[in-house]
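Here is one such protein, fold included:

. . .
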Amino acid sequence: MRTSVNIPEEVLGTFDETWQTQGMESRSRAVREAIHEYVERHTTLEEIDGDAVAAIAFDYEHTLIIEELHTLQHEFEDVIATTHHLHQGEWCLESVFCHGPADRIRELVYQLRDFDAVGRVNVTFLQPTQ
């Protein structure tokens, strides 16, 4: 199936450099792989049930979001065990380690992804338990 997507030129340029450096055969192949990885990551996030242990890593522009981020972290203190924070100029990298109901951790991930000042949010379920 053919489709079209609008991608900023600088993002596409970086994407092309990446797949070419890795020796992939085509942009289409690289896009298919990226889509598969996205689907797998999202499906895993949705399938975890019951109590879970998770690590969430995200980056954000400090001055645009810090108050809202602190409020959100207090709202989820029932599942947030600890956090780790690094500064890089105006941008920060935060790791949040969670333990508790998977649906509650999932809700935190989705709320973090809703902030415009958050660049990326990645979650790894370290030890799903039943």
Q: What stands out?
A: The two ends are 40 Å apart (CA to CA). The chain has a mean pLDDT of 90.
